[in-house]
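Both lines are given unchanged directly below:

***
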Amino acid sequence: MTPGLILLGAIALFVVVTVAKGIRIVQQAQTMVIERLGKYHRTLASGMNLIVPWLDRPRAIDWHMVVVTPAGDSFARHFRTEKIDLRETVYVFPRQNVITKDNVVVEIDALIYSQITDPVRATYEIANLPDAIEKLTQTTLRNVIGEMELDHVLSSRDTINAKLREILDEATHKWGSKVSRVELKDINPPRDIRDAMEKQMRAERDRRAAILTAEAEKQSRTLQSEGIRQSEINKAEGDKQARILAAEGEANAR
């Protein structure tokens, strides 16, 4: 093989590699942050994009988070990615013990729905977005529940969800993220308190049943008395009419 052919082959290979490195395919609902010589350059949209090889490079993101399985087990997950998912993501957090205002320890299972709205901020304003959201959620949950007594916590789940969503959405905005929904799946007080609450509810149900029974008996007696009274009235009215008719009959006979 002559040196000319070798050079031509090298040039062709270089061109192919350069073109291949300059093409970036981004899937729907994803994006990619491109840096040029280590500095932010632009954000790629979904579809086929062209970048300048050797100068432009996708920014790799290292994220780690705690993943909770359906069985309730949790494990740490670390992943490195160049593509940022713009779809809404559900973060399920491990159960957390929180102290209420009246010093009761409750176990709370929370999840949030979050979506990246600004990929540049999500890349450069925070080192690890999923972990930051988890830590912020735990801290906010402790603060919100710590201002409420147990009875209020158990009866105000929707209010707590709305308050958490408002606080988290405002706090994560600077990270290019939006929190659309927060849900407290389970709120579990200690066993002794649950037993006491169950006894109280059972006693309340028994009390209401007794009241309903007493009201029914009272109404029955009232109806019975009313029936007797009406029967006596009807009898008296009948006797009166009989006497009137008898008197009229005697008068006509004379």
Q: What stands out?
A: Residues 61-189 form a domain with the Tetrahydropterin Synthase; Chain A fold (CATH 3.30.479.30).
